[in-house]
Amino acid sequence: MNDRNASPDTATNGALILVVDDELDLLSAYAMLLEHLGYRIRTASNGREALACALHERPDIVVSDFMMPIMDGAQLCRELRASPALSSIPFILCSAGRLRNDVPIPYDTFFPKPVLVDRLVNEINRLISRRDAT
Fold first, then answer.
1. Cα(120)–Cα(103) distance, rounded to whole angstroms?
2. Where are the transmembrane segments (predicted)?
3. Domains along the chain?
4. What is the model's pTM?
5. Over the stretch 55-74, which tens digit does the pLDDT of each residue have?
């Protein structure tokens, strides 16, 4: 579990994003980009590590890969939704593979990989704004 802090930008309200991916280069790229935009970032390389991180410090949003060792993104999403303290966290799921339609995953947004950065950032902002409005 890595901890990266940036000074909060007024547009991001210093929101905490948990980024989860087993591809360390991609994980670092997402983290650096989002940190540069003013978000606070935590990273994890698998779902189990991400769940522990979320339980330790509740993120404002989770951006997770689907296919990972130990615990995949679908199971992470289900675990978060099952926790009363974490169930309302917006969840963005990303995957280079296809998702099965017969196994529901309670994510908020799905992006196929490679993810277009502008779309990802716009969706993060939209989900955080929706959270702030409630």
1. 24
2. none
3. 2-133 (3.40.50.2300)
4. 0.89
5. 999 999 999 999 999 999 99
